[in-house]
Amino acid sequence: MAAKCAIFLDKDGTLIPDIPYNADPDLINLEENVGRTLAMLTPYFELIVISNQSGLAFGYFNENDLKTVEARIKTLLHKYKVSLSGFYFCPHHPNGNTAPYARRCDCRKPAPGLINRAAREHHISLTGSWMIGDILNDVQAGKAAGCKAILINNGNETEWDMADHPQRIPDFIASDFAAAGEFILNSLNHEKHNTAISAISGKL
User: Fold this and answer.
1) How far apart are CA 151 and CA 136, in angstroms?
2) 155: Cβ contacts below 8 Å, ≥ 6 apart
3) Number of helical H runs and strand E runs in the chain
4) Which of 11, 33, 106, 201 has its CA 20 to 30 A from that of 112?
5) Cβ atoms of residues 16 and 73 within 8 Å
6) How far apart are CA 12 and CA 143, in angstroms?
7) Rounded to whole angstroms, how far apart are CA atoms 143 and 140?
8) Positions marked catalytic
9) 184 closest CA partner among 110, 129, 118
10) Residues 16/33, Cβ–Cβ less than 8 Å
C-alpha cells in the first residue's frame, strides 16, 4: 500500500480551546478557522489527532468520556465536510493516581510514540507530514518522528526552551490555525512547482 502524508493535530489549544481536563462535550467548540482550514487541507492529507490526556491518569474522566469528546469534535468537523482518519491519545502521567495509567511511557508528547504508531497503522510517510500544536512539546514530538512542525503562538507556550534542543524549533510559528494551514498549502505548492521544473529540466 502506498504511503500517504498526514497532518497530526494536537487537540486542546489547537483544534479546540484549552479547558483543562474537560470531558463535557457541551463545552467543546472548534477554534476559529479550524474547520475551514482543514477543509482546504483534507484533499492532500490524512488528518489525525495526537493528544496527551493525563486526565485519565489523574481520574478526572474515563475513556468512555473521552469517546464522547471525540464524537463531538467529529460532529463539529463534519459540518465542514472534514473527517478524521485517527484519534490517538496518551492516557499516562508518571505522577498520576489511577492504575494502569500512572506510569512513564513512550507515547506522551514530547515523545513521538503516538505519531509513530499512527504512521504505522495508517501507512503514513512521516517526511511529508506535519505536526501542528500550541506548545513546543508538540513540535518536539513531530520533529522526533520525522515530520515538519508548526507552532501556533496563541499564548499557551510560556517557557520557549529551544536552546540546545533543535527538535523544539518549529519550521514555522503561526499566529493562528489559518496561518498554519496557509503555510502548509504554500509549501505544498512550492514542492509541486519544484517537481514540475525538475521534470521539464530533465527533458531538455
Assistant:
1) 7
2) none
3) 5, 6
4) 33
5) yes
6) 19
7) 5
8) 10, 12
9) 129
10) no
